[in-house]
Amino acid sequence: MSKIIYLQCPTGISGDMFLGALVSLGIPLEYLINKLNLLGIGGEYRLRAELVRRGTQEATKVDVDLVCDRAREHQHHHGRHLPEIEKIIVGAQLPQRVEKWSLAIFRNLAIAEGSVHGIDPQKVHFHEVGAVDAIVDIVGTCLGLDWLGIDNNEREFPLLFCSEQPTGGGTVHAAHGEMTVPVPAVLKLWEMRGCPVYSNNINKELVTPTGAAIVTTLASDFGAPPSMSIEKVGWGAGSMDLAVPNILRLWVGDRTTKPTNTHNFAQTNISPSLEKIYVLQTQIDDLSPQAIGYIFEALFNVGALDVFTQALGMKKSRPGILLSVVCPPAKIADCEAVLFRETSTLGVRRLLQERAILQRQIQYVETEYGEVRVKVAWKGNGEEKLIINVQPEFEDCAEIARNQNVPWREVQRLALQNWYQKQASEMQQ
């Protein structure tokens, strides 16, 4: 089987968190130090690791301590240009893959920095993202992946995956002054890669430019964990204490495949993809029931995924409803605006949850009464693709039933029957 890594980033990622997770897995710190000394900047820093607690959990914290005034002055006032960093890496005679990955990470970082500041990537001053600690973090991470035997270029399967990235919030002081989080370089790297993000309501800098550059360059995909057998987990600590343990979790294991000879979801142990959603809730006891249908339509029009009500008893024995709205993180403001505008509520609760979803597609099938849309849901791709659910669209079947004066159930049955016959014919071809 192929070795695989999954990065779980509930509180984001930075270069030192990645290094800490690798050391936690068992990569000798002495090995990293010896290899990093080939860069020729060993006199500017000291690399150390220690076990720390983040919340109730223990993790490995790796620090790059600058040890001379010259190094600090070089980092904060002069910075380094991309050609200088490339010269350092190429001249170190590192393992081929380490050199290749490290150069690619820094080049992407230079492109992002150059884009947001309007200058040529070759002329970017790397300041905090290209200083000694960032060089050590990036090259050290690539050394660790090489030591583990992780290869995402030369084998059949891509072997480095990463979870969605939390956006963070607030501001941070950087070399260019006070900046809004996510900082521009991180946003640009996410844009360049099309990286999926979400808000976990922690207003701190959670993803650093170094961390973003590493994962957007090396990760094969972002999202839910791939099918794998976990052998070991590394725990890399961040610098801050947060409301939840500030730890990057690095899973290492073997890539596994899923059976493809059955349509039974329960028997195949398939894990659907996960996505972040919000559930907005409010209780109402002083609104006309006639308004509820209109509110449903308004919420769906602004991007709600689902809307539903539940009857309940409220204070002073008043009958009321619990109005719940399921929406993507990006649609919170729009859905809340509808709730405050169209209902009498004075407050809305937000619940962050995960939703397991299948991939889906609308297909079309012909029946003797007319065309019907069919929603097809599946998991996996290629040879691993497994169809889980097939459902004709209710409104299409209902419209045909009304117009043709035939039972709705008969239209639905014909649509399903013709869809399966079409699939069987295509497989035979």
From TrEMBL:
MF annotations from Gene Ontology: lyase activity; nickel cation binding
InterPro entries: Ni_insertion
Domain of life: Bacteria
Keyword list, A-Z: Lyase, Nickel
Pfam families assigned: Ni_insertion
Database matches in PANTHER family: NICKEL INSERTION PROTEIN-RELATED, PYRIDINIUM-3,5-BISTHIOCARBOXYLIC ACID MONONUCLEOTIDE NICKEL INSERTION PROTEIN
Family stated for the protein in its record: Belongs to the LarC family.
Protein's recorded name: Putative nickel insertion protein
Organism per entry: Mastigocoleus testarum BC008
